[in-house]
Design a protein that fits this description.
Elements (H helix, E strand, L loop, with lengths): L1 H5 L9 H35 L3 H17 L1 H11 L1 H21 L3 H29 L5 H13 L1 H6 L1 H9 L1 H22 L15 H13 L1 H32 L4 H28 L4 H21 L6 H27 L6 H29 L5 H7 L3 H26 L7 H5 L7 H7 L8 H4 L4
């Protein structure tokens, strides 16, 4: 992941080639998200097809997301060595192969192996797309291009929530997943034909030795700012991911009595709301950089509070409350990006990719834990019942508590380290000039907890 975090680009960002390369890369990523979230829409059908209980069903997503999270750094290293063009082809083919196997799988081991391939292909596609953004777009546009790439990619969930679900019910399991597999294969071929590893004048950097990478990982984790971003990402993302990846649609249909198509529309609303909220969270972060940890805590509190209201009702929640729940969950995705922002501004440029990789692992790790434990709880309480889901969703609360404690503890340490480094937390001079030399040391440390956030848009080289 070193290259994607520290590269500079020689492209002017206006030539048509930039958009051709970006479009081809984001197409692979888009279908990668579709394959990633496909079992969220087809969870009940998968349970019927393979004759499995909720605990075993959660194993599908557990394997897939575990492979995705564990593959972040290895995927980045392969992209650095072989280039994003080749790895987009590999990633798309892995995604297609995984979904193709799932289309015709009749045994549980083969189906689980298919989801492992999907997780590996997903990790490679994401890393490749992020590297191309850093190489092809001017430095000042990389943050915005990264947000847009993420937003477009997440629209893949819309494809799994409605078109794939409609095709599944109209034509059957094998046809639906074969079409999904074909989409990834076609996107891989398109990427291989159109993507170039870098603009004219760009030269690939020398890959970092494995020993150096291990040393960097240790240094990055020891920085409190990295851990602050880690816990922030963990606490804001997992509830949305758990809902969208697997348990959301079965919960809406089985526990809340919502029609499948309406449930699919609510899942689509989650994506649309995330797209709308994303820029607003970005603006809020930019305008209040010294309050980013409070944004994280606020979103965690809002999410936990909304779930508490829904779960406290004795019967099904009214439709308007389910809409509110979906919209609140949608905020978790953009809010988790604040964790990346904190990690970026508390790590030197050469470590940005490693720091962001660590932060990215947090939310996905929490998601797979909650997915698995919820599956076990549902199995123990009788399956897809209203009371079973009510008990299963309570698994979220210890994770939120863990994240909040982590944020508060690491924030205090980050403030102390930033105060020792100076009013700007060791960043560039303009941040120092915003503080009066006579200001109390404690105020310096408090303001520097998330240092130089106001400078991100002007001074950062990568997103």
């Amino acid at each position: 992941m070193r290259t994607s975090g520290a590269e500079t680009t020689t492209s002017n960002g206006h030539r048509p080639a930039v958009w051709v390369v970006w479009g081809a890369a984001v197409l692979v990523y888009l279908f990668g998200v579709t394959q990633r979230t496909s079992l969220g829409a087809a969870g009940l059908d998968a349970a019927d097809r393979f004759g499995i209980d909720p605990g075993t069903l959660s194993l599908f997503v557990f394997l897939q997301i575990s492979v995705y999270a564990a593959g972040q750094i290895p995927a980045g290293m392969m992209v650095d060595r072989y280039g994003p063009r080749v790895m987009l082809l590999v990633g798309g083919l892995l995604l297609g192969l995984g979904q193709g196997l799932l289309a015709f799988a009749t045994t549980l081991p083969l189906a689980l192996g298919a989801r492992v391939l999907v997780g590996a292909g997903d990790a490679v596609a994401f890393s490749s797309a992020m590297v191309l953004v850093a190489r092809w777009f001017p430095a000042r546009r990389v943050p915005v291009a990264t947000q847009v790439t993420t937003i477009v990619g997440q629209l893949g969930q819309v494809l799994s929530a409605l078109p794939l679900l409609l095709l599944l019910h109209a034509a059957g399991w094998s046809t639906a997943f074969t079409v999904a597999a074909g989409a990834s294969v076609v996107s891989a071929v398109v990427a291989a034909a159109l993507v170039r590893n870098g603009p004219v004048g760009w030269h690939p950097p020398r890959p970092a030795p494995a020993r150096e990478l291990v040393r960097q990982v240790g240094e990055v984790w020891r920085r409190p700012g990295t851990r602050l971003g880690f816990f922030g990402h963990l606490g804001t993302q997992f509830s949305m991911m758990t809902f969208s990846l697997l348990w959301g649609l079965p919960y809406l249909v089985s526990a809340q009595g919502v029609e499948p198509l309406v449930a699919g529309a609510l899942m689509t609303l989650l994506v649309i709301a995330s797209v709308v909220v994303g820029p607003l969270v970005g603006v809020l972060t930019a305008r209040h950089p010294m309050r980013r940890s409070w944004i994280l805590l606020g979103v965690i509190g809002l999410t936990a509070g909304t779930w508490t209201v829904v779960l406290a009702l004795p019967g099904p929640a009214p439709t308007w409350l389910l809409v509110v729940l979906v919209v609140v969950l949608a905020v978790g995705g953009p809010a988790s990006v604040v964790g990346f922002d904190i990690a970026r501004t508390t790590n030197p440029g050469g470590n940005l990719a490693v720091a962001q990789g660590m932060v990215n692992i947090a939310g996905y790790s929490a998601s797979v834990v909650v997915l698995m434990v919820m599956g076990a709880v549902l199995t123990a309480t009788g399956g897809f019942t209203a009371e079973g889901f009510r008990t299963a969703w309570l698994v979220q609360y210890p994770v939120w508590a863990f994240a909040v404690v982590g944020i508060l503890v690491t924030r205090r340490k980050a403030r102390r380290v930033a105060g020792e480094a100076g009013p700007d937390g060791g960043t560039s001079g303009p941040a120092r000039r915003r503080e009066s030399p006579s200001a109390p040391r404690r105020r310096d440390a408090r303001r520097a907890v998330e240092p130089a956030g106001r400078l991100v848009g002007r001074s950062e080289r990568t997103a």
